[in-house]
Amino acid sequence: MSTPSEPRNHELPSTYIVQDRENQAELARLELQDHLLTTSMGGVLAEQEDPTKLRRVLDIGCGPGGWIIEAATAYPMVNFTGIDISKRMITYARQQAQDKQVAERVDFLVMDALLLLEFPNGYFDLTNLRLGGSLLRTWDWPKMLSEMLRVTRKGGVIRLTDQEIMHRSNSPATTRLNEKVLCAFYQAGHLFEQNSTGITARLPLLLQQYGCNNVQTKAHVLEYRAGTPEGQAYSEDMALASRTLMPFIRKWGCMSEDYEALYQQSLLERQKSDFYATWHFLTAWGSK
């Protein structure tokens, strides 16, 4: 698949919540999380009326490429482009596309989305940003949405999906770990308010404010229970996140001396036979 121009290679510091995006544990976590969320939400574009009409789709902050590869498998008539600031993530995503035999319809490019999206005006039918709150500070949203609108064709779709920071579960230790993540997200400027919906509550308003029409939303309540494949994947995701987010939590003054004890206790509590958790997400989308 050819691209309109050859993007420049950026090696700049990232605002992502895991500063070291070459981190192998974070790559593994993102790959696990991509599949976990896509499956739990009913598919890659489950809320879109007819994804088969799309021809070009951009995924911003694609990480190891899981969402795009699943999308390319589901919609063989669509061409996909994924961008990420991490060269390692992009190298891995390209190899996965080869292995899954979708490389002819997928491009993965190293690009810093906080600068410019290096594509022509009106190039994509749908521009996707999933979990952008892990990358964007509150003051980064205007430029990001402006660029997303610029590279999307008239009548095309701008699509945002993000999470509530606090997960609701019967594991007290997991709840306390999530509270530290919430603290760090807010202190770092990733939340508009210091509460669990500090990103999701703003998504439809942001789309309307920066020029989208016909803004719609779909709430997702993802349930995970012990003894199920989804519950096990969720527990593994949480275990990896609790490790890779430690520098972020410490940097923003939200670490506590009992963090390691909480981490070990959370592992035990998530393995109990009655463990359950719910994770709330919101997808918001509008047209240009």
Q: End-to-end distance, in Å?
A: 25 Å
Instruction: Assign the structural class, choosing from mainly alpha, mainly beta, alpha/beta, alpha+beta, or little secondary structure.
Output: alpha/beta
The domain tally reads: 1
> Helix and strand succession?
HEHEHEEHEEHHEHHHE
Percent range for helical residues?
Answer: 25-40%
CATH topology: Rossmann fold
CATH superfamily: Vaccinia Virus protein VP39
Radius of gyration: 18 Å
Major sheet description: 8 strands, mixed
Unreliably modeled segments: 2-12
Mean pLDDT: 93
Task: Report strand %.
Answer: 15-25%
The best one-word shape is globular
CATH architecture classification name: 3-Layer(aba) Sandwich
What's the CATH class, please?
Answer: Alpha Beta
User: Number of helix segments?
Assistant: 9
How many strands?
8
Verbal overview:
By secondary structure, the chain is of the alpha/beta class. It has one domain: Vaccinia Virus protein VP39 (Rossmann fold), CATH 3.40.50.150. It contains nine helices and eight strands. Strands 1, 2, 3, 4, 5, 6, 7 and 8 form an eight-stranded mixed β-sheet that branches. The N terminus is likely disordered.
Features:
Rossmann fold; methyltransferase activity; eight-stranded mixed sheet; alpha/beta; SAM-dependent_MTases_sf; single chain; 288 residues; 9 helices
